[in-house]
Amino acid sequence: MHTATDTLALIGHTPLVRLKGPSEAAGAEIFAKCEFANPGASVKDRAALSIVEDAEARGLIQPGGTIVEGTAGNTGIGLALVANAKGYRSIIVMPETQSREKMDTLRALGAELVLVPAAPYSNPGHFVHTSRRIAEETPNAIWANQFDNIANRRAHITGTAAEIWEQMGGRIDGFTCAAGTGGTLAGVGLGLKEKDESVTIALTDPHGAALYDYYAHGELRSEGTSVAEGIGQGRITANLDGAPIDTQFRVSDEEGMVWVRRLLAEEGLCLGLSSGINVAGAVLLARQLGPGSRVATILCDTGFRYLSTLYNPEWLAAKGLAVDSGATSA
């Protein structure tokens, strides 16, 4: 036990846990990084801190400045917390389709929240483009630009990957997670490959995203849809550029929800759908690598952020996701 030097030192150094159900389903060892243990309750705290400290080191923001970002919510929450701790303002632009809990959390943290209609990236009204324009029009402001700012993935090269390697005693055969910005997948992949080139790095893609076909067939093409927030990408971001992807899986919301329900009912973990999709991908990767393999993944955020959606039976039924809680097909 030790005392943190300040509140920002609480970001990272999260626990790694062996997941019993997924390990049994895979005939292997499935480990998960508990990123919901960060102060902002998600993996995005790491990128938020890295992006702000990089901007400070380069003299891009001065005391009393403003941090602006477009986000599905979790990065915004991390940036708002970092901004508060460092004396900055925060302006967060978010699609109006995201969970009510994320909106309420951002407002409670003191962020100025700007909601915009969901739109494709090619639309000038997309939340990323809107946030960039606001940053350009705001004095002493930085645009965090989490998708193409490689300070994002650097946090995972030096932090998340190094922690996983140490916590697993250097005995790891594979790692997988979904991609939103691509920072976590690329950063952990690059960091683990530096330690051992033979570690298999896999993308786990939700339906509606284009990366599965890109890594499998060289073409950015999507099919289907997903209600998962914060994951799914239709382009190669700067964070994804050069990501060492060895193999890829596509996981449906239904498969992800099986693990969300099982991890809650059997292991007492309340998680979001991105975590369920990651765990489903980890099981697939472990089965591919063979019996006894050791695979790690990311538990992205807390399920308490989705009480009005994933944990609302009426919402699930409307989305066609009223999965039998006893399902064990994963």
TrEMBL record:
Keyword match RNA-binding: no
InterPro entries linked to this entry: Cys_Synth/Cystath_Beta-Synth (IPR050214), P-phosphate_BS (IPR001216), TrpB-like_PALP (IPR001926), TrpB-like_PALP_sf (IPR036052)
Superkingdom, natural source: Bacteria
Alphabetic keyword roster: Pyridoxal phosphate
Cofactor (UniProt): pyridoxal 5'-phosphate
Domain Tryptophan synthase beta chain-like PALP: 10-301
Coiled-coil regions listed: none
PANTHER family per the UniProt record, alphabetical: CYSTATHIONINE BETA-SYNTHASE (PTHR10314)
NCBIfam families according to UniProt: PRK10717.1 (NF007989)
The name this protein goes by in its record: Cysteine synthase
Organism whose genome encodes this protein: Sphingomonas hankookensis
